[in-house]
Amino acid sequence: MPMKALWKLNGLLIIALLAGCGYAVSVNDNVVYTPPKLFTGQHITDKNLAACVEQTILDQEITEARNLKRLNCTNAGISSLAGLEIFAGLEELNLADNALQNIEELKHLAQLRVLILTNNSLQNIAPLLTLLKLYSLDLAGNAGLSCNDLKQLEKNWAELSLTQSTTLIKPEHCG
Prior knowledge:
CATH architecture of the largest domain: Alpha-Beta Horseshoe
Number of domains: 2
Number of helices: 3
Helix content: 25-40%
Number of strands: 7
Structural class: alpha/beta
Largest sheet: 5 strands, parallel
CATH class of the largest domain: Alpha Beta
Order of helices and strands: HEEHEEEEHE
């Protein structure tokens, strides 16, 4: 391989490596690659949830709200979900072992398939009745939850079970 071609190949390899690390790449003072910016448009009021979401955005290199598909914020001291509804593409959400009482914002997450709410302080799961793609739900450890809401959810899921299997883990007092 001629020396000139080897230098070009080495240059291209260096550009590719730098681009993969999130750096802008310039040649002769002309920017040839600028990495996409990470998503920063969230306005989450609960500082613990905000910290979890920010770390997830960094870890998964999320550039748009709709690209966040999985979020795991267990045992984080979260008491409010206000602002989470911007992540409408969420498919899997784990909020086990927090201090949640209200989950109203979850009704906006129509893509949710798996939801873990174990060991919170939930009183009402009515917002979940609109989540038509939800097929796995864990509500164990929510002693204040009304079993009537669970019956309505089971009724909705009975119709869905013809097309997919569902998993519902109930609080202990609901049998």
